[in-house]
């Protein structure tokens, strides 16, 4: 069985890299154009005051209301502005524990594994990785027993070969984007 797994992995990873045409089918947030200085200013204003009106954003950035409105709409259309979900603390849903499950999968079953992971409510996000592990699965749980249940669900997915679970003991640097936006900020008055 172990030889079969190695064979599956070797066969699937030997495929050619995606073509430019295939890359163009990636979700829009994977290929969003970089923001310019004015967009960065708008995003910084929204980061500081997420509920601000378009007029307040326009005044903070020093642009007209119509320009602010058009640019915010463009940021949304391009996938630069993500969903509101990221702002909701999972602890408020009864899931105060956070963990990351590194997962090794049979490559030819990657899409099926991802579909199964998407059906588990406690799975917040899944990243494809290079290296020994194939996926990094971000999960939340109510307690240690619940985390054990969730990790078992992940391991039971057809195509999952191995998992390792790491419990987050403490968040040292929270999610942030402002430092990157600061670097793109527009210089001087508009």
UniProtKB/TrEMBL annotation:
UniProt keyword terms in alphabetical order: DNA-binding, Transcription, Transcription regulation
Name of the featured protein: Lrp/AsnC family transcriptional regulator
Annotated stretches, region: Disordered: 1-26
Keyword set includes Transcription regulation: yes
Organism for this UniProt entry: Amycolatopsis minnesotensis
Transcription regulator AsnC/Lrp ligand binding domain segment(s): 108-171
Superkingdom of origin: Bacteria
Pfam (any one): HTH_24
Compositionally biased region (Basic and acidic residues): 1-11
